[in-house]
Amino acid sequence: MMHLAAFLFTPGSHSAGWRHPEAIPECDMEFAQYVRIAQAAERGKLDTIFFQDTVAVNGSAGLDGVQGFRPTQARQAYLEPTTLLAALATVTKHIGLVATATTTYNEPYNIARRFASIDHISGGRAGWNLVTSQIEDEAGNFGADHHMLHAERYERAEEFYDVVAGLWDSFEDGAMLRDKASGNFIDPSKLHHLNHRGKHFSVRGPLNMARCPQGRPIVTQAGSSDAGMELAARTADLVFTAQSELAEAQAFTSDLKARAARHGRDPAHVKVMPGLMTIIGRTEEEAQAKYRTLQTLLSDANAMRLLARLCGDLDIHSFPPDAPLPPLPPSNAAKARQQHLMDKAKRENLSIIQVARYLGTSLGHQLLVGTPASIADSMAHWVGQGACDGFTLMFPYYPTPLEDFVELVVPELQRRGLFRTEYTGRTLRDHLGLPVPANRHSR
Ligand SMILES: Cc1cc2nc3c(=O)[nH]c(=O)nc-3n(C[C@H](O)[C@H](O)[C@H](O)COP(=O)(O)O)c2cc1C
């Protein structure tokens, strides 16, 4: 059985999808649209919805040499994801609720508290997508002149995770007595200080919250560099990644699971779910026509701006767009994504503008254009070949492509016995087949 997450990047993961006649671009700020999207994903019995996050307006620091904001650029404003999850927990019953929060521009105590609250509010469906922030514009909103260096971001993230996981174990099960007769409200023997002192943080604890319904919220990650994979192997329950080739995905998944085993973990308890954008038609022609329509909406300028963000100090705008992608200097933003693009460009002999448009179409993730049957064939093949445990679904715009996936592809996967027909568990851990972690103090 495969696992499916819906990656919700409003108003769409395709850079110009919001211009499609069917699209509702207001879905970025209208709660009613988020409700429609979340309930559609739950109708499809998906494991979880997952919100990305960036704590800045893209391009606001003018780092890619383009001053000012481009009027045609979408994905600039959206609701803060953990606030959104708390609200969506009240209009959904089963679907997992994952939100992104950066370890570079947050404090662990606040993050532990926020996600534990969502786990309590949702009855055990919360997840934290731990990122170190790939968007360098964020630094200026937190008193920093420059974005923290990649290696330091991950060093901080390792310690950040340890503090959060430690705080989530503050209250053991049964610590909250609330015994009116004796007047004892808590059992002090089941409440624990953390007393963490490290290079980046000093946190006494305990967290002021009873133990979570899931033991602790699940942790997801999306870093694919060596540092990113090491952190994921030690800490993540679910790993998002950009893989567009079967062999590439097989190598990534087996490497990550081997690393998890080296950290003493069961490799089956780390789910790898690469990004996948689908453009669905009831016929192949219909799907191709939809794809062509979308591509006519995508401007080269916007696509090039996305690529420029992954080119470090190199001014990619100074190269002829039809030239091959030059070797790119190290990026302080997203290392693995940059490598992924360079490998793809070399393998497929792509020009600069072709790479940029690929990025503008699916953010550098796999794209499948086809019928429900052809899309299900490819998904089944990847899972069957051990390339992944499922997929992180992306949609060019909302809500129709998500609703089409739920109404057309999910039944095809269910008919083949590859996807659940009903939620059988209560929590996100149940959906993912993950055990409840023991509390370090209760062992
Ligand atoms: C599916 C997916 C979703 C992501 N969502 C976010 C996000 O919401 N915010 C963010 O700062 N980075 C996000 N990232 C980027 C990663 O956190 C990470 O920075 C990137 O993969 C590069 O990691 P690396 O430098 O370890 O290769 C996402 C990546 C993937 C694959």
Strand content: 5-15%
Strand order of the largest sheet: 1-2-3-4-9-10-11-13
Bound molecules: flavin mononucleotide
CATH homologous superfamily annotation: Luciferase-like domain
Average of the residue pLDDT scores: 95
Total beta strand runs: 13
Q: Could you name the CATH topology?
A: TIM Barrel
Task: Give the number of helices.
Answer: 13
Supply the CATH architecture: Alpha-Beta Barrel
CATH first level: Alpha Beta
The helix content is 25-40%
Low-confidence stretches: none
The termini sit apart by 32 Å
- Identify the overall geometry: globular
Short structural description:
The protein is an alpha/beta fold. Helices cover 37% and strands 14% of the residues. Helix 1 links the parallel strand 1 and strand 2.
Pick out its properties.
two-stranded antiparallel sheet; globular; TIM Barrel; binds flavin mononucleotide; 443 residues; alpha/beta
Description:
With 443 residues, this protein is α/β, with parallel strands linked by helices. It has a single domain, classed as TIM Barrel, CATH 3.20.20.30. 37% of the residues lie in helices and 14% in strands. It has helices spanning 31-43, 81-88, 108-122, 150-168, 226-235, 246-262, 284-297, 300-308, 335-348, 352-362, 372-384, 400-415, 428-432; strands spanning 3-8, 48-51, 96-102, 126-131, 176-179, 184-186, 196-197, 202-203, 218-221, 238-241, 271-280, 366-370, 390-394. An eight-stranded parallel barrel has the order 1-2-3-4-9-10-11-13, surrounded by seven helices. α3 crosses α4, α5 packs across α6 and α11 crosses α12 (400-415). The longest helix is centred in the middle third of the chain and has 19 residues, at 150-168. The protein is globular. The mean pLDDT is 95. The structure holds flavin mononucleotide (FMN).
